[in-house]
Amino acid sequence: MSPFAQKLRLTGLTAVLGLAVAATIFQLPAQAADEAPPGGYPSWQDVEKAKQSEASTAAEVTRIGDLLGGLQAQGEALGNAAVSAAADYAVAQSALQAASSKVDALTAQVARAREESGRHKREIGALAAQSYKTGGTNMGFFVALDAVQTNSIHAMDIVRIVSDKTALLVHKSAESERVAAALADQERAAKAERERLAGEAEAKLSSAQAAQRAMSQHIAEQQQHSQELTAQLASLKGTTAAVEDEFRQGQAARAAYEASLAAKRAAAEEQARRQAEAAARAAAQPPANPAPRNPAPGAPAPVPPAESTTPTPLPVVVVPAVPGGAVNDPAGAKTYAAGRLSAYGWGQDQFQCLAQLWTKESNWLTTATNPYSGAYGIAQALPAGKYASAGSDWLTSYRTQVDWGLAYILTSYGSPCGAWDHSVLKNWY
After folding, report:
1. Confidence band (pLDDT; 50, 70, 90) for 351?
2. Euclidean distance between CA atoms 44 and 229, whole angstroms
3. Which of 4, 133, 158, 394 is the most exposed place for a label (fewest CB within 10 A)?
4. pLDDT confidence of 325, banded at 50, 70, 90?
5. Cα torsion for 397, 399, 400, 404, to the nearest 10°?
6. Do 186 and 257 belong to one domain?
7. Residues 151 and 32 both lie in one domain
8. Which residues contact 120 (CB under 8 A, 6 or more apart)?
C-alpha cells in the first residue's frame, strides 16, 4: 500500500476510533509525514533543499508542475467517467420507461381483446335464445318443414339469418380469444424484460452515483494538494501563489480551448459524414411516387424538394438527473449568467449572443450531453472534466458550469458575441 493510501486509511480510522485512540495505535513521528509526503508530493523540506542550486530548483519546478498536471488530468478523467456513467444510466432508464410503456399498452390490449370475446359470447347467448324461440336447434326442422308446406319464405330467412350470425359470432369469439392469448404471452415476456431492465437501470444508477462520489472526492483532494503545490511552486520561482494560480488557470483555459477545438471539429466532421451517408442512401432509393413517363399535357413538372444548406446542430441528449444530483433550470441559469456578465467586463448587450449560443448548444440544461463528442452541460465543455477547474460540483450545478463557460469564452473568443459569430460560421465554438 502506498504512503498516500496509508494516510487515507489512517484518516478513515481516525474518524471512527477518535483522534486519541488513533494516535495511540499509530505512533508516527511528527517529522515522518513531512519527510515522506503522501503520494510522492514534495515536502517543504524538499523545496528548501531544491533552492540550493539552479538545477535542483528547475527539477523541482518541473516535478511540481507534473504533479499539478497529473491531478488535473485525473480529475478530468474522473469527470468524464462520471458523465459517461450518467449517460449509461440515462440509456438504461429510457429503455426501462419504454418497456414499462409497452407492458401498459399490452395490458390494455389484452383487456380489450377479452372484453371483445366476452361481448361476442353474450351475443351468441342472445342469438341462441332467439333461435330457440324461432325453432332453432331441435325445432329448426319443423319450422323449415312448415315453411316449405306454407311457402313461408320469411320463416326460412329467420332460421338462416340466425344460424349464419351465430356461426360468425362463434368465429369472432374464438379469434378474440386467440388474440387475447397471444397478447397475454407478449405481456408476460414484456414484464420479464421490464424486470431485467429495472435491474440494469438500478445497477447503472449505482455506478453513476459511485462515479460522482469518486469525482467529488478527488476534486476535494485535488484542491487541497493543488493549493500547497502552488505555494511551493511560487516559493521556488520567487513569485506568489496568486500569480502561479492565475498562470496555471490561463494555461488550463488555453488547453481547454485547444482540446475543445480538436474534439468539436472532429464531432462536426463526423456529423457531416453521417449526413452525407444518409443523403447517399436516400438518393439510391427509388422515389416513393415516381412521375409518370407521359404526363398529361399542361401538367406542371414535379418539383424536387429543396436541399437544406444549413448545417443541422448536433443532437443533444438530456441525461436524467441522478437522484440527489443536477437540477435543470434554464430560467435560473439564464438569470445567473446575465448577472455574471459584468464580472468579465461585458455589458448586457452581450447576453443576447450568449442566450443564442447556449440555447443552440444545450438549451441551457445542466445535464445536456452530446452523444457524438461527449460535450456536457450548459456550456458543452469538451472534455467534460474541464469544468472541474471551476468547482467540484460542476456535474450538477448550473452556476459552476456558467462560470466556467464565461471564462472559456473570455479566453477563447473575447466575448459571447465573438463566440456566437464563430458558432454561426463553424457550427461549434
Report:
1. very high
2. 10
3. 133
4. low
5. 140
6. no
7. no
8. 169, 170, 172, 173, 176
Neighbours of 388 (CB within 10 A): 27
Asked whether the beta carbons of 368 and 314 are under 8 A apart, the reply is no
Residue 363 has what pLDDT? 92
Look at 37-51, 234-248, 330-344, 346-360 and tell me which has the smallest mean pLDDT.
37-51
Final residue of a structural domain among 217, 239, 261: 239
In a domain, 100, yes or no: yes
Rounded to a whole number of angstroms, the distance between the first and last alpha carbons of the chain is: 44
Domain that holds residue 401: 243-277+320-426
The reply to whether 304 falls in a domain is no
Query: Of 259 and 56, which is predicted with more confidence?
Result: 56
| Domain end call among 212, 239, 266 | 239
- 338/261 same-domain check: yes
Residues 360, 263, single domain; the answer is: yes
SS3 381: strand
Burial class from Cβ neighbours inside 10 Å (0-12, 13-18, 19+) for residue 68 reads: buried
**Count of residues for the chain?**
429
Quick check: 399 and 341 in contact, CB under 8 A? no
Q: Tell me if the bond preceding 286 is cis, omega within 30° of 0.
A: no
Q: Are residues 56 and 22 in the same domain?
A: no
| Digit-coded pLDDT (tens) for 353-371 | 999 999 999 999 998 888 7
DSSP structural state of residue 316: -
pLDDT, tens digit, for every residue of 385-408?
888 878 878 888 999 999 999 999
* % of the chain residues with pLDDT over 70: 71
* 248 in the same domain as 128: no
C-alpha cell at 99: 418497456
CATH number, domain of 184, equals 1.10.287
Whose grid coordinates read 413517363?
293
* 416 within a domain of the structure (yes/no): yes
Say how far apart CA 376 and CA 318 lie, in whole Å: 10
29 shares a domain with 53:
no
The predicted structure's pLDDT at residue 135: 55
Domain count, the chain: 3
Burial of 6 (0-12, 13-18, 19+ CB in 10 A): middle
| Predicted confidence (pLDDT) per residue in 215-232, tens digit | 888 878 887 888 888 888
Residue 306 resides in a domain: no
Scan for cell 422515389, then name that residue.
287
Whether residue 58 is found in the same domain as residue 109:
yes
334 near 364, Cβ under 8 Å? yes
Is-contact 35 3, C-beta < 8 A? no
